Amino acid sequence: MSKFYVVATPIGNLGDITLRAIETLKDVDLILCEDTRETKKILDKYGIVKPTMSYHAQSKLSKTDKIFELLEEGKNLALVSDAGTPGISDPGALLVSKIKEYLSDSVDVIPIPGPSAIIAALSASGLPTHEFTFLGFLPHKKGRETLFKEIAISERTMVFYESPHRILKTLESLVKFCPDKKVCVARELTKIYEEFKTGTPAEILEYLNKNKEKQRGEFTVIVA
Ligand code: SAM
């Protein structure tokens, strides 16, 4: 059986990689990367010298054919994204689903777990974590208002990813649709300027408006 490893990599701090992830990346025949230049940073840090091939959201069907060919030849492959766990708001889910559908007799799909911004954010947020719904990135237009209405009435903790360009807009919507909820904005997790800020949507909005430098970076938002 060929092996197809889905390998989680750091979400900022390059130290956040498991021993098993390093061993796996050293052992496989080829590493599929969302962006080969991003992955090179981690490969260089851990002295991993392996052929890489790009596989991203815009990859053509011919790329999938090539990957299938390699697996059918008996090659072992690893898939990584730029940061965190592949397939979680990142390329990989469709490829894994196709491998499982068409090559399940000849390929084992094996997760190598590790960082994911959702779990890191939840774990140190102080908000309820026993049940949560992950929303990925919120839609920009269609379905956006409906989603905020769902967040407003949900009894479960809601978690989503947000870009620095849209964080203020999203907080404005939270102020409008669910002013009494608690929001935790987890910014730049595992990096130098890591920060958790918790409060009502209005309090967080005011904080970000007053501190423009805090509007930069990567955000995971939790609403409870
Ligand atoms: N697959 C990744 C994972 O498992 O975490 C998520 C990839 S998604 C394309 C990237 C988004 O995740 C960012 O826009 C941000 O919302 C969130 N994210 C990634 N790294 C983060 C970090 N260090 N701190 C906070 N949020 C982060």
TrEMBL record:
Q: Does the keyword Manganese apply?
A: no
Q: Where is the Tetrapyrrole methylase domain?
A: 3-203
- Protein localization: Cytoplasm
User: Signal sequence: where?
Assistant: none
A molecular function (GO) held by this record is: rRNA (cytosine-2'-O-)-methyltransferase activity
Similarity comment text for this entry: Belongs to the methyltransferase superfamily. RsmI family.
Protein purpose: Catalyzes the 2'-O-methylation of the ribose of cytidine 1402 (C1402) in 16S rRNA.
Q: What is this protein called?
A: Ribosomal RNA small subunit methyltransferase I
The species is Candidatus Nomurabacteria bacterium GW2011_GWF2_43_24
Lineage here is: Bacteria, Candidatus Nomuraibacteriota
As recorded in Swiss-Prot or TrEMBL, the protein's gene is named rsmI
